[in-house]
Amino acid sequence: MNDVVEVVDRLGRAFLSRDVADALACFVPDDDITYVGSEAGECATGRDAVRELLAGLFARPAAYTWQATSVTVHNVPGGAFVIAEADGREHTDDGKVEPFPYRITGLLSRRGSGAWLWRAVQGSEPT
Fold first, then answer.
1. Domain limits for position 48
2. According to the model, what pLDDT value does residue 75 have?
3. Which has the closest alpha carbon to 117: 30, 46, 18?
4. How far is Cα 58 from Cα 24, in angstroms, rounded to an integer?
5. What is the rounded average pLDDT for all residues in the chain?
6. DSSP assignment of 27-65, as one string?
7. Does the pLDDT at position 79 exceed 90?
8. How buried is residue 6: exposed, middle or buried, by Cβ count under 10 Å (0-12/13-18/19+)?
9. CA 55, CA 9: separation in Å to the nearest integer?
10. What are phi and psi of 117, to 5 degrees?
11. CA 20 to 30 Å from 67, out of 23, 44, 106, 126?
12. pLDDT tens across 8-42, in order?
């Protein structure tokens, strides 16, 4: 389970650093990937579309990150469905940090190396 928590948190670190390449490296290497954010319009399928969406998100005047606090894993053939509650943080360019509740759900694929990578992931802000 720790390796699944790490893949959830790794994507959060990539978001904080605003590094598109690092974020894309959290996904399987083929084109069959999806990212859905918590705001309207934040939905992309396919590597090029996800890259474009992430570049737009990372150009905003704030960086977002999260760290998992609890994770539920449902094993499926070749992968896992993950539901993670997380502590989110918005880091503004003027140095302010605002906490918020966050939830990550998605489908992970187990690679031949044993590493978990995202196939599809959705972030949401539960109210």
1. 2-124
2. 93
3. 30
4. 13
5. 96
6. B-SSS--EEE-SSTT-EEESHHHHHHHHHHHHTSSEEEE
7. yes
8. middle
9. 19
10. -135, 150
11. 44
12. 999 999 999 999 999 999 999 999 999 999 999 99
Three-state secondary structure call for residue 6: helix
Q: How confident is the model at residue 67 (pLDDT cuts 50, 70, 90)?
A: very high
Q: What is the chain's alpha carbon radius of gyration, rounded to the nearest angstrom? A: 14
Question: The whole model's pTM is what?
Answer: 0.94
Listing DSSP states for 10-21 in one string gives HHHHHHHHT-HH
Place of tokens 């974020």: 23
Task: Give the three-state DSSP class for 23.
Answer: helix
Whole-number Å distance between alpha carbons of 126 and 53? 22
> Do 33 and 50 meet the contact criterion of CB atoms below 8 Å apart?
yes
The tally of domains found in the chain comes to 1
CATH number at residue 22: 3.10.450.50
Side chain identity at 62, as an amino acid letter?
A
What's at 31, amino acid-wise? Answer: D
